[in-house]
Write a structure and sequence with these properties.
The chain is α+β, with helices and mostly antiparallel strands. It has 13 helices and 12 strands. The longest helix is centred in the middle third of the chain and has 39 residues. The N and C termini lie far apart (63 Å).
């Protein structure tokens, strides 16, 4: 699911930061450090539905290999807990970060290509400290990773958070990422965290993933609009098709309708009969469509749909069709409601037939 991929691409479900970090943190990272004592990760991890809490320390500087020097955007992370959050950060070559290798780092695919380094090579990291000095350390490339965002891979690297703190001559973290066991509980945990931190740390803010996923929201809005338009077209087709079918039935059964009205059937009963026919057609068509749609989705997903790289990505992927219960119910409901609506006009026309004229046609 795209939603879960977005969450596990680095965002997590919730982020705890100092107020103003998202607006000014890049320009002045040292001003938005959060002391580890200010965030009781054990207390947060004990909350219902919280899977893990992991810190991140952002920094930037220069990385050198031989005569090549490039700028980078770095993240100091806790390797084990970060691995649960960043499942979409895929290590292509070498190995992921490990606490047992305090000087092992991983580089984005684009950054590694620009430096022409491979797992096992040594590089030098150079950053400015809080006091304005310069700090440098030689590290070993453990692995090379890629994400869904090529621009990030072209400049990013990750190091164990202990190494980042040592390099920056500081402590704490910029972000504490909270991962949940159930995305649907995000708002519940958000409320609990804001209540918990609001009492002791009013300068901290808790932000849900949806407020940070601008691209995801844009894509969802776009596809929602497209899906709504397609549903409208389908509804019009259903209405026109069933209305035409029932109008044909009215013409072919004129004498039958006249006979029914002659023996005492009220006009309301005639309307109910034709609306019932429309509802049955909708029920059968909707059920059959849902079943066939599910089966076709499974078959197509088993084969896969090769997709080109999306904007900002350098790797294609195999798309699959995921039919959810909500989607199937929505399609079924659309078929039934459209069929019932389509039956109203033919039913009304049938109820307005004059008995004498109807019987005369049957002679």
């Amino acid at each position: 699911m795209e939603r879960e991929s977005t969450i596990h691409s680095r965002l997590g479900h919730l982020q705890i930061v100092k107020r103003g970090y998202y607006e000014s943190g890049v320009a002045d990272p040292y001003a938005y450090l959060v002391d580890e004592r200010a965030v009781d990760t054990r207390q947060i991890a004990a909350l219902a539905y919280v899977k893990t809490v992991t810190p991140r320390l952002a920094f930037a500087g220069l990385i050198s290999k031989g005569d090549t020097t490039l700028s980078f955007l770095g993240e100091g992370v806790a390797p084990e807990t970060e691995a649960l959050v960043s499942r979409e950060v895929v290590v292509d070559a070498g190995a992921p970060l490990a606490s047992g290798d305090p000087k092992g780092v991983i580089l984005g695919k684009g950054l590694a290509a620009s430096l022409r380094v491979a797992p096992g090579d040594n590089v030098v990291l150079l950053v400015n400290t809080r006091s304005g000095g310069v700090s440098a350390v030689e590290v070993r490339v453990r692995g090379i990773f890629h994400t869904a965002v090529k621009a990030f891979d072209d400049a990013a690297l990750r190091v164990p958070i202990g190494l980042a703190r040592k390099l920056m001559h500081t402590g704490g973290a910029h972000q504490f990422i909270v991962l949940l066991s159930d995305t649907e509980r995000t708002n519940d945990v958000l409320y609990s965290l804001r209540h918990l931190l609001g009492q002791s740390q009013p300068d901290l803010q808790v932000t849900p993933w949806i407020d940070l996923a601008d691209f995801y929201k844009a894509v969802v809005d776009l596809f929602s609009a497209q899906t709504g338009f397609v549903r409208l077209i389908i509804a019009v087709i259903i209405v026109m098709s069933i209305s035409n079918t029932l109008m044909t039935n009215v013409r072919e059964r004129t004498s039958e309708i006249g006979t029914m009205m002659a023996i005492g059937f009220r006009r309301r009963r005639i309307i109910e009969l034709f609306v019932s026919e429309g509802a049955v057609m909708g029920l059968l068509g909707g059920a059959l469509g849902a079943i066939l749609g599910y089966l076709l989705g499974e078959v197509i997903s088993a084969v896969g749909i090769p997709m080109p790289p999306a904007p900002g990505m350098d790797q294609g992927f195999d798309a699959k069709i995921r039919v959810t219960a909500e989607m199937a119910l929505g399609g079924f409901s659309l078929a039934v409601v459209s069929a019932v609506v389509a039956s109203f006009y033919p039913a009304w026309k049938a109820s307005r037939i004059q008995i004498v004229e109807a019987l005369r046609r049957g002679i």
